[in-house]
Amino acid sequence: QQQQRRQRHHPVSTVSTSRAAPPTPLGLAAERGDASACRALLKDGADPDGVGPRGNRPLHYASYEGHAKTAELLLASDADANARNDVGCTPLHNASTRGHGDVLASLIAAGADVNAVDVDGVTALHVASTRNVTEALLRAGADPNARRRDGRTPLHEACERGDGWATE
Q1: What is the pLDDT along the chain (168 residues), one digit of tens a residue?
Q2: Where do Basic and acidic residues bias regions lie (predicted)?
Q3: What region does 110 belong to: left with phi over 0, alpha with psi -120 to 50, or beta?
């Protein structure tokens, strides 16, 4: 079940999807962390919020893969820090899932909503995978009592993952 939750936040599907369109060129460059290619594409007029498969934008890809410089470049080009994909996940969900604290910090500084929920009511704090990400989200005002649609809180999720430090 945890793998299913993680796959929902993963921007790249390994199975067929109903959205057959490939990622945009900017999305592909962002996923690879190729900041120079992103810069060139943006200079040539690429949309920093161009929608790819499953509703993911370039910032979703950069956030999931932990490409901080690419994420910062996209944010400086007015990419939407609160963009949602088809299941309501934001780039903050993606960075949180993978424990990319540097990307998370950039997203928060750019105004990412730390309490944004996906279609299941999951926040970035529910899927936070490391202590430093959890602490950063809490410092930024994430609600530790937020409940998913099934009633589970971030603490439930942390305990299920075996994150003993989360109870401190």
Answers
A1: 444 444 444 444 333 333 456 789 999 999 999 999 999 999 999 999 999 999 999 999 999 999 999 999 999 999 999 999 999 999 999 999 999 999 999 999 999 999 999 999 999 999 887 888 989 999 999 999 999 999 988 888 878 777 766 666
A2: 145-168
A3: alpha
In sequence order, what are the residues at sequence separation of 6 or more whose Cβ sits closer than 8 angstroms to the Cβ of residue 79? 48, 49, 57, 58, 59
Distance (Å, whole) CA 120 – CA 149: 6
DSSP state of 81: T
- Whose structure tokens read 């161009």? 50
Alpha carbon distance 84, 107 (integer Å): 14
Q: Show me where the domains of the chain are located.
A: 2-9+22-167
CB contact at 8 A, 68 and 103: yes
The CATH homologous superfamily for domain 2-9+22-167 is: Ankyrin repeat-containing domain (1.25.40.20)
Tokens representing residue 95 in the block: 């960075």
Per-residue 3-state assignment (H helix, E strand, C coil) for 81-132:
CCCCCCCCCCHHHHHHHHCCHHHHHHHHHCCCCCCCCCCCCCCCCCCCCCHH
Distance CA(38)–CA(18), nearest Å, equals 27
pTM (2 decimals)? Answer: 0.84
